[in-house]
Amino acid sequence: MYFFTVQGFFIGIIFGVLKSFDAEGLLLYTFFITTFFYLFSHVIIAFYFKTIALKTYMFPKDIHERHLDIFVEEIDRREKLIDSAMKITDEAIKVNKEMGAQNA
Question: Which residues make Cβ contacts (< 8 Å) with residue 45, sequence separation at least 6?
């Protein structure tokens, strides 16, 4: 925070010297730019602490694992259903070919 405030002070002095031709302008530019950098550093620090507080949130691992287990069981059940449907389809195609060969 101090670094940003001092940086704002020096940027304010440089900007004041370049833009202002009197002492009052120099002081005003320096004051406003230093204040902006001071407040900006507070905003950055507030967001930093806010993200740190979010990282300490406990992830409900056991609930998610139970949901994932249910999804895996559902996928396995559907795979078995599809496999049995493919076997039935393959048998039907085989029977149709045999019937077509006998009729020809």
Answer: 1
pTM value > 0.70: no
* Reduced DSSP (H G I as helix, E B as strand, rest coil) percent helix, strand, coil of the chain, to 5: 90, 0, 10
In the chain, the amino acid numbered 33 is I
Helix axes 2-19, 23-55, angle to 10 degrees: 150
Residue 12 is encoded by which pair of tokens?
């304010």
How far is Cα 77 from Cα 56, in angstroms, rounded to an integer?
38
**What pLDDT tens digit does each residue of the chain (104 aa) get?**
677 788 888 888 888 888 878 888 888 888 988 899 899 988 988 888 877 766 666 778 889 999 999 999 999 999 999 999 999 999 999 988 888 777 66
